[in-house]
């Protein structure tokens, strides 16, 4: 089974990315042949500063390796080291109806928010389909917001296979329902575009202040019982917690005399306990960038072998 996912280097990674995509993808490394890449071509739809793109690309590489990506098990690479995806994207675009792309939420949301759309933003899902199909992926772990893009990928693969003969496997999304949408400090979906994130590797003082001061709660008095299901702090805590820890916090909420400040403190503790070892690993890796570069190069070589094989078949099928 081939498992593939990608993430854009367009800002600092946060808990939404971690629980929605990174952790599920890292867990799946045990179950099959995993491919994970840094979608730097996709990031160019929003990042036009070369130094920033380079820096964010390296950050994502460090973040994944620090959080447990095992380069012996997972083929880890930069999207731009496999330029064959662009040729395949062209072959796919000839069977992609305009209407299919016009219906994509991510494109519609961005244009609705007044972001001037360029062609790359419109064509984004075709490149994403190419990323997935070129490696004959079976399973694509992503957060729920990417589900439509996987459906588009399947539509495009089907059309291509019908018109030109069977070249592509149809991939399945893998979305963990209990972590499908991680709330940000304001209760909306956590997203770097909403400025409501808890970053994975911010300065510890900043993380403390984000958790203690910025998570919004209601004004139920300390003494009163509280509903954990209605609370952003609990929604985040449960992602880290063991079933016992979770049950304890739930009981505390319902019993009363347990304030949001207490819950925030427990969230901060469990955050630190989880990320402190990753933070140390990340610092080590940052001191050994040659190693990080060698992982990405080796990954690209292996990804390219697989990509070239699919691209050759697609070229022949279409008459090139
Ligand atoms: P952002 O919204 O911060 O720009 P991206 O769109 O780059 O994040 O998302 C990268 C990956 O992380 C995707 O697979 C996406 O589904 C997942 N993800 C991002 N935010 C969340 C969230 N709040 N809850 C669950 N998954 C998320
Ligand atoms: N669009 C994805 C995101 O914003 C990133 C991505 C690009 C991706 N290509 C992919 C994810 C292929 C999975 C598979 O998060």
Structural class: mainly alpha
Bound molecules: adenosine-5'-diphosphate, tryptophan
* Element-by-element helix/strand order: EHEHHEHHHHEHEHHHHH
Q: Strand order, main sheet: write it out.
A: 1-2-3
The percent of residues in helical segments reads 55-70%
**CATH level 3 topology of the largest domain:** Rossmann fold
Number of helices: 13
Estimate what percentage of residues fall within beta strands: 5-15%
Please report the first level of CATH classification, the CATH class of the largest domain: Alpha Beta
Number-wise, the strands total 5
Distance between the termini: 30 Å
Mean pLDDT: 95
- What's the number of domains? 2
Q: How is the biggest beta sheet arranged?
A: 3 strands, parallel
How big is the Rg?
Answer: 21 Å
Write out the CATH superfamily name of the largest domain. HUPs
Low confidence ranges: none
Offer a concise description of the structure:
The protein has 320 residues and is mainly alpha-helical.
Description of the molecule:
The chain is mainly alpha-helical. It has 2 domains: 210 residues, Rossmann fold; 81 residues, Tyrosyl-Transfer RNA Synthetase (Orthogonal Bundle), CATH 1.10.240. Helices cover 57% and strands 7% of the residues. The protein is built from 13 helices and 5 strands. A 3-stranded parallel sheet has the order 1-2-3. Strands 4-5 form a two-stranded parallel ribbon. Helix 1 links the parallel strand 1 and strand 2. The longest helix is centred in the C-terminal third of the chain and has 30 residues. It starts with a strand and ends with a helix. The relative contact order is 0.15. The mean pLDDT is 95. It binds adenosine-5'-diphosphate and tryptophan.
